[in-house]
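Aggregate trends can hide what the representation actually does to any particular protein. For completeness, the protein is quoted in full, as a sequence line and a line of C-alpha cells.
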Amino acid sequence: MWNFQGQNAEFARWICDFTAMPADERTILHWFFLHEHSKHVMVEWEYEATALMSLVRGWAMRSRRGHELTAVVNDICDRSPDAKRIWAGGTDLLVQGPSRPMLFREPGYTDPRQADDRHHHVRLTITTLTPVRAGESHRVLAFLLPEDYTAPTASSDACLACHAAPT
C-alpha cells in the first residue's frame, strides 16, 4: 500500500531518504503527515496533502484491501492533527492522470521563511508508470526535473527549517 521499495540518491536528496525510516512507515502517507520536513519540501503542502487524502479515500472505497489502508490512515490521524483534520474534512475525490506537476523546494533551500523562497521553487513532473500485466500491482513513480533546469551553486542539503538532513 504505497510502500517505497527503492529510491535513487537524487530522490533521497530532493524528497526524502525512505531507507532512514522504519520499514513499516516507508509510505508517502507517513512521510507527508508524520515528518515536518514534508512541509518544507512541498511548496503547496496543504493542497498536496488534501489531494493525497482524496486519492487515499477513493482507493480505500474501491479496493478489496481498503480496510487495511483505512487502518493505516486511522493510525496516522491519531498521530497527526493535520491528517486528522484533512481526513475528517471529507475531501473531494481527486482523479488524476499518469502525470502531473508538483511544486518542490530545491535541496538546501527548503526553509519556507528564506527571503528568496520563490527563486528556489521547482515544478517537477511526477509520472506514474503502471505495469500492463494482469495481477501486477507495483508502480514506479518518476520525478522529472524541467528540461531547462540548472542546479544552483553548491549548498548544503540540510534543511535549515528542520536544522537537519532531510529524512
